[in-house]
Amino acid sequence: MMSVGLYRYSGELDDRESELTLSENISTQDFYDEHWERAIHELGILIIQDGSEIAFHQLGDALDELERLREWAIQRLEGANLEYMKGRVEHLQRILPNAFYSEEVILYIF
């Protein structure tokens, strides 16, 4: 099953020698397409989305976006959908600050 995730590599993304050093699931593709995309569009999210590269200097803005996505889920979703999206967002809020072991690190969402 396809999914969207947060990834970190030991070097450049397109370098064959580069190793995957962080892999965190964000959402199944279907759930992302249905709920995350709608939230991203409605909130004007720029960083936390499929295809993004996140640099260290964007960490504060990325965490702000995650909090807005969390609030959106609380207001718009219910039941299992709410628990799933809220849980994934809160997980990202916990791991994102520690994902940058140096200011040169780039994180990828795809």
Describe this structure in words.
This protein is α+β, with helices and mostly antiparallel strands. Helices cover 49% and strands 21% of the residues. It contains three helices and four strands. The protein has helices at residues 29-43, 59-76, 79-99; strands at 3-9, 20-28, 53-55, 106-109. Strands 2-1-4-3 form a four-stranded antiparallel sheet. Helix 1 (29-43) packs across helix 2 (59-76) and helix 2 (59-76) packs antiparallel against helix 3. The mean pLDDT is 96.
Biggest sheet descriptor:
4 strands, antiparallel
Number of helices: 3
Morphology? globular
Task: Find the count of extended strands (DSSP E, 2+ residues).
Answer: 4
Give the N-terminus to C-terminus distance in angstroms: 14 Å
Question: Strand sequence of the main sheet, in spatial order?
Answer: 2-1-4-3
Q: For the CA atoms, what is the radius of gyration?
A: 14 Å
The stretches of 5 or more residues where confidence is low (pLDDT under 50) are none
Helix content: 40-55%
Please report which band the strand proportion falls in: under 5%, 5-15%, 15-25%, 25-35%, 35-45% or over 45%.
15-25%
> What average pLDDT do the residues reach?
96
Structural class: alpha+beta
